[in-house]
Amino acid sequence: MNLNIYMAGLVFSLVLTGVSVAATPVPDVCTAGPTVTAEEALQIFKGNISALREKVRPSQLPTVFVDPRKVTDYERAHIPGAVNLPIEEGLFTKASLWKTTSGGSKPVLFYCNGENCPRSHAACETAKSFGYKGKIYYFYTGMGPNGWPRINGPTVSGS
């Protein structure tokens, strides 16, 4: 009997939590750096093209694109050269960000699934809390319909 009451309370708590999280809007600004439009993100990406053709490591790109989405989202489609540091899987850490960005000094652009996805905002603010020294860009619309797909930005699949 007590187990049934506990389980009912747990389910109710999860439902309430889910509702409150879903109702929380994702900020369109990050205190760590400027919010960029899809067109601005594309211009930043174009600065990486010659290095991408040379197949350099992400830490050698002029601007590192960081995708904090789930691995399955990243594998489905991501911006070429982007590094997947999924927040939910615990892979977005100071050590992983520093390794990916030459010690936290390179310009970095965070993106996720679009306006309703909190991951890029969380990554942006977390990078600031880590003491990130490089320029931080927040691509709010990211892979959402008003972002990268709208401008036909290139994508690749796989890991």
Task: Please describe the structure with a list of short key phrases separated by commas or semicolons.
single chain; 159 residues; alpha/beta; Oxidized Rhodanese, domain 1; four-stranded parallel beta sheet; 6 helices; 4 strands
Tell me what the CATH architecture is.
Answer: 3-Layer(aba) Sandwich
Mean pLDDT: 87
Q: Count every helix, treating DSSP H or I runs of 4 or more residues as helices.
A: 6
**Number of structural domains:** 1
At the first level of CATH, the class is Alpha Beta
The fold-level CATH name is Oxidized Rhodanese, domain 1
Radius of gyration (Å): 17 Å
3D architecture notes:
The protein has 159 residues and is an alpha/beta fold. It has one domain: 3-Layer(aba) Sandwich (Oxidized Rhodanese, domain 1). The chain has 6 helices and 4 strands; from the N terminus they run αααβαβαβαβ. It has a 4-stranded parallel sheet, with helices on both faces. α4 (71-76) links the parallel β1 (64-67) and β2. The longest helix is centred in the first third of the chain and has 22 residues, at 2-23. It is globular and about 40 Å long. The termini are far apart. The model is unreliable at 1-23 (pLDDT under 50).
List the helices and strands and how they pair.
Layout: H1 2-23, H2 38-46, H3 49-53, E1 64-67, H4 71-76, E2 83-84, H5 94-100, E3 108-111, H6 119-129, E4 136-139
Parallel strand pairs: 1-2, 1-3, 3-4
Write a compact overview of the structure shown.
With 159 residues, the chain is α/β, with parallel strands linked by helices. It is built from six helices and four strands; from the N terminus they run H-H-H-E-H-E-H-E-H-E.
